[in-house]
């Protein structure tokens, strides 16, 4: 049977529905959660370098603010749409809920290819977006962050714009800022570090020793490289790594530090001298390893390749790398899947710490941040594992159930249903 391709918003809604049904939640809970509470559409006139005015369309969706302000990235991409922003804000609610952060989900974006803009045009567009959102966002309201094609510099311009409008400094209105301008130490490493420690927890649960365990990693960008570095530090052997160029293999273990240095210079993993062979990039998914970390793109583990997956644990660094059909198949095969909403939540967790530090105006050391991240993520892992055992569901559904329980309780107490 052909696999039905759902758009991200439909997938998000399906996952909420499954979890609500499993929890036996009142119908009102799904009714409220199936759509974002608010979505703002803006048109941003920007003066271009040639003196002309060009108008860009932007969005911001706030999915649910029952437990606290909304939070989530802003992306600059030609594919940005109202539906995409709505779907991503929905996912953010559940990601924050899984960890128990005092946030609901938000997401925003502008329809633009930033490569078409000069630096000055990019700054004016970023400031125009922040200005148009000034009444909608805030450090106690909705806190955006970098996402696809946005970065610390863009966040800094936006903080400056908002602070100018407010008349005082408001660094906590955006996270993902450079460390020199109110960003948090250990944020760059946070997502990959989280993937590694969640994989370790899963290994402990099934009696697999991380020391000596074999790992394959799809994608060697920010998430994949740090996940590899930290799991290697725990004594595991990363035997296969892929990126868009190919899949490199060394059965004795690839030297991840050396590979990070190599990719800084050479952009891609192909040609790495520490590898013994190079395979097609998709081979990484079906390697004979103990753990697989998909850290590249969505829809990678599908009904087409799921039967060939040999790993005992799949720990999702990327967002949505497994299709719902493949999810079910992995569960039936007894493979433990640590879902994206937990496995890659290290990023939003340390963004939360950045915001806390901004509000306090007091900053923690790298070690303090990582310690706090570990404590929060371990606690969530245990809670979700327990829920999974109680209800006989996969960890993904258990994660959604955990989030929904938290949000539903807050909504009930507030009298929303
Ligand atoms: P990145 O751009 O730094 O790296 C992406 C990597 O994937 C690159 O090495 C690229 O070559 C590789 N890749 C692309 N196509 C591939 C293919 N077909 N096969 C194998 N590799 C391929 O991105 P990132 O920040 O590491 O993010 C990766 C994923 O993690 C995305 O899904 C992102 O949404 C998700 N994520 C990232 C963060 C974060 O903090 N960076 C947080 C949560 C989730």
Account of the protein in words:
- By secondary structure, the protein is an alpha/beta fold.
- It has 13 helices and 12 strands.
- Strands 9-8-7-6-10-11-12 form a 7-stranded mixed sheet, sandwiched between helices. Strands 1-2-4-3-5 form a 5-stranded mixed sheet.
- It is globular.
- Bound molecules: nicotinamide-adenine-dinucleotide.
- Residues 191, 218-224, 242-244, 281, 295-297, 317-319, 344, 347 line the site of nicotinamide-adenine-dinucleotide (NAD).
At a glance:
The protein is of the alpha/beta class. The chain is 45% helix and 16% strand.
List keywords for this structure.
13 helices, 417 residues, seven-stranded mixed sheet, five-stranded mixed sheet, alpha/beta, binds nicotinamide-adenine-dinucleotide
Report how far apart the termini are.
40 Å
Total of helices: 13
Secondary structure class reads alpha/beta
Q: Strand fraction band?
A: 15-25%
Give the helix proportion (percent range).
40-55%
The chain-level mean pLDDT equals: 95
Low-confidence stretches: none
How many β strands by DSSP? 12
- The helix/strand order is HHEEEHEHEHHEHEEHEEEHEHHHH
- Which kinds of small molecule does this entry bind, naming each only once? nicotinamide-adenine-dinucleotide
Please state the overall shape, judged from the principal axes of the Cα atoms. globular
């Amino acid at each position: 049977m052909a696999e039905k391709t759902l758009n991200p918003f439909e997938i998000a809604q399906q996952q909420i529905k499954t979890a609500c049904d499993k929890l036996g939640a009142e119908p009102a809970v799904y009714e409220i959660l199936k759509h974002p509470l608010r979505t703002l559409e803006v048109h941003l006139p920007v003066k271009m370098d040639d003196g002309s005015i060009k108008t860009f369309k932007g969005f911001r969706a706030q999915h649910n603010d029952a437990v606290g302000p909304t939070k989530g990235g802003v992306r600059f991409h030609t594919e940005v749409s109202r539906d995409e922003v709505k779907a991503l804000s929905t996912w953010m609610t559940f990601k924050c809920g899984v960890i128990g952060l005092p946030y609901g989900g938000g997401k925003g974006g502008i329809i633009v290819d930033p490569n078409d803009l000069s630096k000055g045009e990019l700054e004016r567009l970023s400031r125009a977006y922040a200005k148009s959102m000034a009444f909608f966002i805030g450090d106690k309201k909705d806190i955006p962050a970098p996402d696809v094609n946005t970065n610390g510099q863009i966040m800094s311009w936006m903080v400056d714009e908002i602070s100018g409008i407010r008349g005082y400094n408001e660094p906590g209105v955006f996270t993902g800022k450079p460390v020199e301008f109110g960003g948090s130490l250990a944020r760059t490493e946070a997502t990959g570090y989280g993937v590694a420690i969640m994989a370790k927890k899963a290994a402990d649960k099934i009696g697999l020793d991380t020391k000596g365990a074999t790992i394959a990693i799809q994608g060697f960008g920010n998430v994949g490289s740090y996940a590899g570095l930290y799991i290697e530090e725990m004594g595991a052997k990363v035997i296969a790594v892929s990126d868009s160029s190919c899949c490199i293999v060394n059965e004795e273990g690839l030297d991840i530090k050396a590979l990070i240095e190599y990719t800084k210079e050479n952009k891609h993993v192909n040609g790495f001298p520490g590898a013994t062979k190079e395979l097609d990039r998709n081979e990484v998914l079906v390697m004979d390893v103990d753990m697989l970390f998909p850290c590249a793109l969505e829809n990678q583990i599908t009904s087409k390749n799921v039967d060939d997956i040999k790993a005992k644990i799949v720990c999702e660094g990327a967002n949505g790398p497994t299709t719902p059909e493949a999810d079910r198949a992995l569960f039936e095969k007894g493979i433990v899947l640590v879902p994206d909403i937990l496995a890659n939540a290290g990023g939003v967790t340390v963004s939360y710490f950045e915001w806390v530090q901004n509000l306090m105006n007091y900053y923690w050391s790298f070690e303090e941040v990582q310690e706090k991240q570990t404590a929060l993520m371990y606690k969530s892992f245990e809670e979700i594992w327990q829920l999974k055992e109680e209800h006989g569901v996969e960890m993904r559904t258990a994660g959604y159930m955990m989030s929904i329980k938290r949000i539903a309780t807050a909504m009930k107490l507030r009298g929303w249903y």
